Amino acid sequence: MDSRLSDPILRKIVIRILVALGIVAHAWPAHADEGSIEALKARTDGVYILEEWHKDGQVYRPPQVEGRFVLLNGVIMTILHNKMQPPNEITVVVIGRYTLDSAKFSYGYDNTSIFTEGSSGVTVSHKPLFEGLRNFAVNSEGDIVRMRSETGQQELLFDASGSTYSENGKPLRVWRRTTER
Questions:
Q1: Cis peptide before 128 (omega within 30 of 0)
Q2: How many CB atoms lie within 10 A of CB 40?
Q3: Pick from 5, 54, 65, 61: nearest CA to 29
Q4: Buried b / exposed e across 153-162, counting CB within 10 Å, b at 16+?
Q5: Interior angle at CA 114, CA 110 and CA 118, nearest 5
Q6: Residues 14, 15, 19: CA angle, nearest 5 degrees
Q7: In whole angstroms, what is the distance from residue 141 CA to residue 160 CA?
């Protein structure tokens, strides 16, 4: 690393400038100011593509399931397209907000749209997936960020390749991180 960037204050300034310019923040080395909120966001913020959906002992992959998961600038968005049981298809679009600091991650969805398409037509629901915010304790372990819900039932794990969402200790969805920002 350039010796001029070994100064922690200068390094923080450079990171903020790069983020402000829209340059991918996670390109910064993980060891740079590892405990800072900028480093934490660099390991979590981004766009993710659904790779696997685990359900009832089966693993579904595209094209049976497709999805995007976005965490960026306080906005959380998940889009899931479920074609596990043809001819029925379910599309879920949820948009909300999140907060993140070195100890806590909280998120909630403000807008929910669920479209169910079947042989009898299309139905639409705007019923929230859950009420209020879900709160998670944050734990950074090197290049891994683990977020565990207060109840211990849900967990988000982030690493360089992507994210895994688990419920009750079992993977539910596996996401691959993209370079889109």
A1: no
A2: 20
A3: 5
A4: ebbbbbeeeb
A5: 175
A6: 120
A7: 12
* Domain over 46-177 is classified CATH 1.25.40: no
How far is the C-alpha of 85 from the C-alpha of 110, rounded, in Å?
A: 28
- The residue assigned the tokens 């211990």 is 152
CB 70 within 8 A of CB 47: yes
Where do the structural domains in the chain lie, given as residue ranges? Answer: 46-177
Bond from prior residue into 8 cis (ω within 30 degrees of 0): no
DSSP 88: -
Query: pLDDT by residue for the chain (181 residues), tens digit each?
Result: 344 444 555 444 444 444 444 433 333 333 445 568 999 999 999 999 999 999 999 999 999 999 999 999 999 999 999 999 999 999 999 999 999 999 999 999 999 999 999 999 999 999 999 999 999 999 998 889 999 999 999 999 999 999 999 999 999 999 999 975 5
**Helix boundaries (H) for the chain:** 8-20, 37-44
Strands 46-55, 75-82: pairing kind:
unpaired
